[in-house]
Known about the structure:
The protein has helices at residues 11-32, 41-70, 77-111, 119-151. It is an all-alpha fold.
Amino acid sequence: MKDFAGTPGTGLGLALRTSQFIFAAGSIASMATTPNFFNFTAFCYLIASMGLQFIWSFVLALLDAYALVKKKVLHNAVLVSLFVVGDWVTATLSLAAASSSAGITVLYFNDLGRCHFGQECQKYQISVALAFLSWIPIAISSLIMLWLLAAG
């Protein structure tokens, strides 16, 4: 398999994974600090999706860091196939959760004018923004993994 930027065991790969789990953790923290997020199904789905995103990205960031320290190459076809499937599943779930939560945020808080929660509305919006920011690096990672698998 070819070695290019963003593949497992490279500095850019580690940076992408790190940004994924940091944005996912920020999204979870922002949403979980609001007392009423459980009243909205889309927000509960966002918490679940970002939780999965955090776990997946954190474990792969640890694996990337280990590979960088030990100077190992993580281009085993089975391992890359697992990365492809995991990245595409988490990317799809993250985008769906961020989009549905953004839709609810806009509908309830802007269109219907029901934002009587004060600072809570801002936390919902921050959480959704961080979810989208988490999706960008996972989309990049999933495309790199697919490219690596196809080039292999």
